[in-house]
Amino acid sequence: MSxxxxxxxxxxxxxxxxRHTISAIFRVACMxxxxxxxxILIVLxxxxxxxxxxxxxxxxxTGVHRDDNPDGSGLWPAIIGSIVICLICxxxxxxxxxxxxxFLEEFKPRNKALAILHNLVQLNITNLAGVxxxxxxxxxxxxxxxxxxxxxxxxxxxxxxLEFGAQRYYQVRTAAKTFVWIPVTDKTLRVLEIEExxxxxxxxxxxxxxxxxxxxxxxxxxxxxxGQTVYRGSKASIxxxxxxxxxxxxxxxxxxxxxxxxxxxxxxxVIISSQESIRAVPDTMRDAGLGLGCTRWQMVRTIVxxxxxxxxxxxxxxxxxxxxxxxxxLLAVMGGVVGKRNAPENLMDNAAAMPITIYNWARxxxxxxxxxxxxxxxxxxxxxxxxxxxxILLRYWAEKKFASR
Amino acid sequence: xxQTFGRTTLTAMLCIGFLTVAGCGSKKSGGDSDAGGPVVSDxxxxxxxxxxxxxxxxxxxxxxxTQAKERFNEQHPDVTISITGEGTSNGFKSFAKKETDIQxxxxxxxxxxxxxxxxxxxxxxxxxxxxxxxxxxxxxxNKFVKSLTVDQLKKxxxxxxxxxxxxxxxxxxxxxxxxxxxxxxxxGTYDYFSEVVIGKEGSLRDDNQIxxxxxxxxxxxxxxxxxxxxGYFGYSYYDRNKNDLQAVPIINPAGEAVLPTAxxxxxxxxxxxxxxxxxxxxxxSLDKVExxxxxxxxxxNIREIVxxxxxxxxxxxxxxxxxxxxxxxVAGTHYLTAEGEKREGSIINVFKPENLKx
Lengths: 405, 358
Hints:
The complex is a heterodimer. Chain A is an alpha+beta fold. Chain A has helices at 13-52, 58-62, 76-106, 112-128, 133-145, 223-226, 255-279, 283-291, 296-325, 328-334, 354-362, 368-403; strands at residues 162-164, 167-173, 179-183, 191-194, 198-201, 207-213, 229-231, 234-241, 247-249. Chain B has helices at residues 2-32, 62-75, 88-96, 111-119, 150-157, 166-169, 188-197, 216-224, 235-240, 262-267, 289-300, 302-308, 316-327, 347-350; strands spanning 51-57, 79-83, 102-105, 124-133, 135-138, 179-182, 210-212, 229-233, 246-247, 250-251, 257-258, 274-282. In chain B, helix 2 (62-75) crosses helix 12 (302-308) and helix 3 (88-96) packs parallel to helix 4.
C-alpha cells in the first residue's frame, strides 16, 4: 500500500470524545473492582491479625490442644501433622503429575486408537481439575482407608494380617505402680498372665528379670526391686510400638490415607500447570535437538525439562499450598481429630491438621477458642507465605540457570 | 557445550529429586518429632504407661469422656486418647465392627445394633455415667412461651399436621413462623426426643422449617440468633450458654411445669426428658492395661468428672453396680427385653443383673 492511497479517516470530534469518556469510565470501573478485592482482603487479614496476634507465642506454637482451656492450648501437633500430610502428598503427586504431563505433551501416540485414548485421558484430567475436593475425600475413604475391603477390616484389638515393621511388647503394672515391658514372641496372644519370673525391660531401655510375688506376701522395700516385681497372676497386655516406617493394609484412618487423598486432589492441578509450562518451550528447540540426533527422551531430558522446570515448580508449589489448606477430604478420611497430643508417629497414625483445628476452634462454645482460631490462621498463612517464597526463590534460581546458557 | 547440557540436566533432575527426597526424608523427622512434643511435668513423676484408646459416639457424652481424658493424661501423658463426637448411631457402627475401644452413647443400644455386635462377636459392658435433662430452649427475648406440654411439642415437631406458626400451637401466641433447630438423625438425642414426643407411630417433621445439625454448638447459635426459634439439646450445652438461651419449663406427668436443673433432673421431677447417658466398653479392650486403668480412673472420679462437664451424677448404687460389672466383665445390656423392645423405667429399676441381655 503506497502513501498516496492511504486516507486518514475524517475526525469526528464528538465520537472521539465519547470514546475517550467510555475509556475513562472503563478504567475507573476496573480500578474499583481491583481496589474492592484488595480492600476485602486487607479487612479480612487485619481482623484476623488483630484478633489473633495477642495469643501468638512460643508456648502456642509448641503447646497441644486442651479442652476448656484456651489459654493453655497450642498448635504443635497440628503444625507437624499438616506438614507431614503435605510432604506425603508432594512425594506422591509431584512425580506422578510431572511424569504424566511429560507423557501427554511429548509422547503423543501416532496410532489412531491410542490417540483417541490419549485425548480421552487429557479430557478427563481437564475435567477432574474442577471436581470438588469432598468427592476426592469419599474416593480416598474407599480406596485408601478401606481398600475396597480386600484386606480384611481394621480392628482396635487385632494385629493387621498384612503389616510390616511393628514391634510388640506386653506392658504390665508392677508392685511399685510403674510400668515395664515384656518382649512378645506370639503376637496372637493378647494377654499374658505372669506366673513365673520372666525377662523384661524398662520403657527407656535396660533389661532385667521380672520377679513374681504372691498377693499378701511382704513386699520388697527397695523401690528398685519393687519396680521389678509383679503380683502372681498379673495380666500383661500387648501393645505395639510402631517405627516411622510401619505399614499395614488397609491404611485405615491414617496420615498416609490423608496424604494420598490430597495427592488425588492436587494431581490435576500439577498435571495441567506442568503441561502448560512444557508447552511454553518453543518447538524450534525441540526440532534442533531432534535434528542433532537426540532420541525423544534425550530431547525431553536435556532441553524441555530444564527450560520448563521454573513453571513446573510454580505449579507444584501452588498445588502444595492448596493441599495445606484443604479440610474437607481430611474430614472424610481421618475424621475431625482435634485433641491429639503429639505429632504422627508413623504413616499409619492419625494426626491433627491445621485446617481442621481451626474449624473446630472457631465453632467451639468456649469463646476463648475463637481468638485462638484467628491465631492458628496467622500461623497457617505464615506457613503458606514461607512455602511460596521458597518457590519464588527456586524459580528465580532456575530461570537464571536457564537464561545464562 | 555437551558439558553444560549435562550440568543443567543434573540440576534439573536434582530439583525434582530434591522435592521427592525432601518428602521421604522429612517424613522420618516427622516420625522422630514425637520426642519433641510437649511433655507435661509439674515436678511429680509421670507414669510410662503407653498405648492408644479410640473413643467415638455421642456429642452429648463426649464432654464427660473428655474431662476424664484430661485428668488421666495429666498422670499418663504417653497414652493417646482420641475422642470424636459424631453421633451415637454413627459411633455404634464403628463400635460394632470392633474399630473402637469405648463408645459414648446418649441412649441405650438398640436391638439392631446389638444384633450387629453379636454377628461380629463383639462383647461390651454397659456403663451409665450421668443424667442428662434434655433441654428445650427458646430465644431469651421470647416472652410468650411460659411452658410447654408434650402435646404442644408434638404439635411443633411432628411431621404431617405440624404447626407452621406459634399461633397454631396456642391462639394467644404471635402469628410468627417457628424456626426449629434439632440434632441430626445420626444422634441419640434425636432418637430419644422423637421417641418421647412422637412415639413409634410418627416421625419428626422434615420440612424447610427445621434445621438439622450434628453439631450442638451450631444449634445453640441458631436458637440464640432467632427470636422465634426453638431447639433442643443436652443440658450441658444449655448450661454453658445460659446467657444466650432460655430454657422452657416442661409440664411433667404430675402436671407441674418444671425447669431442668441439677436437682429436678436427679429427683426425676423433670420428666419425661431426664435420661441416663452411657459409655459402652469393648470387652476385648479392657484386657489392655491402658484401657483398664483409664476406665478405673474414669469410675473412681466419676462424680467430679460429671460435675465438671455440667451433667448430673447418678445414684451411688448405680455406679457401684456398674463398677462391679466392669471388674467382673459382665457383658450385655440392661435396656432391652427378651423381645427386643426397649425397657422403660427409672435407671434404678432397669439397671439390675436380672435384666441383663447379651
